Amino acid sequence: MSAENDTNFNSAVFLLSGIPGQEDVYLWISIPFCLMYVISIVGNSIILFIIKIDASLHEPMYIFLSMLAVTDLGLSIVTIPTILGIYLFNSREISLHACFAQLFFIHLLAKFESSVLLLMAFDRFIAICNPLRYATILTPQIIAKMGLAFMLRGVVVIFPLPFLLKWFRYCRDNVLSHSYCVHQEVMKMACSDITVNSMYGLCTTLLTVGLDSLLIFLSYVMILKTVLNIVSKVECLRTLNTCISHLCSVLLFYMPEIGLAVTHRFGNSSSHLLQMVLGYFYLLVPPLINPIVVKSKHLRERIIRAFVKWRVSSSLVSRAGHIGNKKHSHLFHAGSSLCHISRPEARVRLQYELPREPEPL
User: Fold this and answer.
1) Cα–Cα dist 92/277, whole Å
2) Residues 272-282: pLDDT tens digits?
3) Which residues form the G-protein coupled receptors family 1 profile domain (predicted)?
4) How much helix, strand and coil, in percent to the nearest 5, is found in the chain?
5) Residue 286: CB atoms within 10 Å
6) Cβ distance 80 to 284 under 8 Å?
7) Which of 106, 189, 191, 230 would disulfide-bridge 171, Cβ 3.0–4.6 Å?
């Protein structure tokens, strides 16, 4: 590559895409994305706040739920501002290094969310299949080590991607088919051989998302086998009910992930809209739905109790401020009435109120 082309590469930008053919209504399209952003941030923040302040929620299940909330917050913060920039300000350009940084965090957080879903499945497996050893197996130290190990796994797997992409020469069309940067799209913009990146991406997906989904499936096979041995139907349904929210989160995450991977590898130009819809669903819907599908009655009660307590305290503060304003106004009116007393009356009052000097003998 010539020096001129190298200069163009260093200052290259990618163009992100919105929904094609709907440029006239981009402002209206931004409204649901704004609502999704606000609900995701507020919902996951409330879950983290309640779990932190309530000591009764410092249990393995809620610790894993807080990990999931942190991951969903990260995905919302990394992706939705870029999407809103397209639909609100038509800001489509993104620099090469910013694109590499964004795809690094998107893939890292996605891999870690897959790991958290696996940890939650392991939690359900121990609680149902081996409940007597639940407290001894899932101690806070073991939970911290598992979370750190899976985070390091994600960093080690995703860290080479930006550097592999940086070695490429980008001389093709720089328009991406998504509203954010992902590895599968960026590597197709290169005019070099992308076989290494394609194989590496496939291997990382199989070793992380593929392995996690397989282990989740096996854990639920064991859970179902244990539950079917329960004689009481009521207890059987009650036990299965504790897994419904986790199953919903698993399906919301893995189904669009698999569909997006298939369309990227085997799709053609006609599947552009399908790729965009799956991409939005994959990164935006789980952070939005996960706080809603929380089926823990204990956590819901704590959230409602905290909300009621906040409403009562705010009403008491406003009422106290209203009473204080009333007292202040009464004192003000009393003082102003004294100021309107005539001078002779004031002189007479002072004579009666001030202490008199003793008369000389």
Assistant:
1) 18
2) 778 888 889 88
3) 43-294
4) 80, 0, 20
5) 27
6) yes
7) 191
pLDDT single digits (tens) 270-320: 567 788 888 898 888 989 888 877 656 667 777 777 778 777 776 666 666
Residue written as token pair 């739905």: 289
Show contacts of 197-204: CB within 8 Å, 24+ apart.
Answer: 197/161, 197/164, 197/165, 200/160, 200/161, 200/164, 201/161, 204/111, 204/157, 204/158
DSSP 21: T
Identify whether the C-beta of residue 275 lies closer than 8 Å to the C-beta of residue 260. Answer: yes
Lowest mean pLDDT among 93-97, 202-206, 235-239: 235-239
- Distance CA(20)–CA(269), nearest Å, equals 13
- The string of DSSP codes covering 93-122 is EEEHHHHHHHHHHHHHHHHHHHHHHHHHHH
Q: Tell me if 187 sits within 8 A of 197, measured CB to CB.
A: yes
CA atoms within 13 A on the CB side of 337: 6
**Number of alpha carbons in the 13 Å side-chain half-sphere of residue 12:** 24
- Domain regions of the chain by residue span: 3-295, 311-353
Residue matched to tokens 């919903």: 248
Long-range own/partner contacts, residues 124-127 (CB < 8 A, 24 or more apart): 124/219, 124/223, 124/242, 124/243, 124/246, 125/219, 125/222, 125/223, 127/61, 127/242
CA torsion 180→209→127→303, rounded to 10°? 0
Burial class (CB in 10 A: 0-12, 13-18, 19+), 240: middle
Q: What is the pLDDT, as a whole number, of residue 3?
A: 40
Q: Is the dihedral of CA 249, 136, 132, 59 positive or negative?
A: negative
Retrieve residue 122's tokens.
């392991």
Token pair belonging to 51: 């779990």
Write down the pLDDT at residue 326: 56
* Consecutive H or E run containing 4: helix 3-10
Count of other CB atoms within 10 angstroms of residue 19: 16
Does the pTM exceed 0.85? no
Report the candidate in 159, 158, 166 with the shortest Cα–Cα distance to residue 97. 166
